[in-house]
Amino acid sequence: MSNSPEAPVSWFSLFRRGQHYAKTWPMEKQLAPVFIENRIIRATRFAIRFMPPVAVFTLTWQIALGGQLGPAVATALFAVSLPMQGLWWLGKRSVTPLPPSVLQWFYDVRSKLQEAGQALAPLERKPDYQALADTLKKAFRQLDKTFLDDL
User: Fold this and answer.
1) At what angle do helices 129-142 and 100-115 cross, to 10 degrees?
2) What is the DSSP string of 108-121?
3) How many structural domains does the chain have?
4) What is the band of 4 on the pLDDT scale with cuts at 50, 70, 90?
5) Does the pLDDT at position 6 exceed 70?
6) For residue 53, what are the domain limits?
């Protein structure tokens, strides 16, 4: 699903990729000490749920009180931008190639999945974090948790 590192990814495409990555990434507590995704995904989901109402409240409160609209609009824009920042970060992360330290572990998990009889599509490019998320999702469903021992 990811483009090669040379191909530019459009700005709006990053948001879609971020949403997909957040849905794909396994929210397992064993991954939290190693990968920041769990915290970013939780914060982004929180921001998606609560920041738009905060923005509306900020604006309506200032209008109702006859207060200054400039700071209220700035605060509202900032609140609405927080979910977008999280999705953008997740989208960028999803197309980032895996570093060498994670790459070897990624190949080990893939080989354990194949040994367990799981059919995996061949890799057409250098693995990125989206490929890691897809592989980990399958691994948590198909394998016992011993595959995490090498992490």
Assistant:
1) 40
2) HHHHHHHHTT---P
3) 2
4) very low
5) no
6) 8-95
